[in-house]
Amino acid sequence: MVAGTNPYSFTKNHMSRQYEEATQPLSLSISWDHEEDRKGYIYLGEEVEGRYVGKKENVGENKANIYTLEVEHEGEVQLFSLWGSMLLDSKFNEGHHYKPIPVGSFIKIVHQGTKPSTRGKGKTYHVFKVYFELPKREMTEAGSEEEVPVAKPAKKAPVEDESGY
Fold first, then answer.
1. Cα separation of 146 and 103, whole Å?
2. 145 domain residue, yes or no
3. Which of 43, 69, 103, 120 is deepest in the core (most CB within 10 A)?
4. Global confidence as pTM
5. Do residues 93 and 85 make contact, with C-beta atoms less than 8 angstroms apart?
6. CATH number of the domain residue 85 falls in
């Protein structure tokens, strides 16, 4: 193959490309305890409203989910993360007629306080109500309806069997 005929080859002809660094916006985690003062966490109140923009699965040693919301805070839209729990996961995963709440939906999470856990003496868990509004369609300039663009979750990689093939 002649150099420069492969569109994916890096020859001198391609050295003038303008690359942009791929970045991931940082987000703060939502705290439900107004007295807690942990770095990276912020108390937004007992109700949080925003657009559901994504979910990360199997994060950390507890293999928890993290839900990301765009929330208006201090006059601008910011990204906030919310650690999942057994209760929140079930509401996000089965809250729309036993199907997941779609990414792009507007979400309202109302913290109902804590309840004693039956799993451990002296332990408590947070109780929530989760409300959502499905993404709406918007009118284009030509007058036809068009779905509001939202980020799509990444596809899961296929799992290999134990033999590695």
1. 16
2. no
3. 69
4. 0.64
5. no
6. 2.40.50
Domain enclosing residue 35, as ranges:
24-137
CB 71 within 8 A of CB 109: no
In a domain, 114, yes or no: yes
Tokens 């990414």 label which residue? 103
* 111 burial level (CB within 10 Å; 0-12, 13-18, 19+): middle
Residue 19 within any structural domain of the chain: no
With beta carbons less than 8 A apart as the criterion, state whether 70 and 51 touch: yes
Beta bridge partners of 43: 31
Rg, the chain, Cα only:
21
> Residue 109's Cα: distance from chain center in Å?
14
Got the DSSP string for 20-60?
A: --------EEEES-TT---TTEEE--SEEEEEEEEEEEEET
Instruction: Look up residue 131 and give its amino acid.
Output: Y
Signed CA dihedral, 58, 91, 24, 13: sign only:
positive
pLDDT digits (tens, 9 = 90+) for 60-81: 999 999 999 999 988 989 899 9
Q: How far apart are CA 125 and CA 114, in angstroms?
A: 5
Tokens of 59: 């994060």
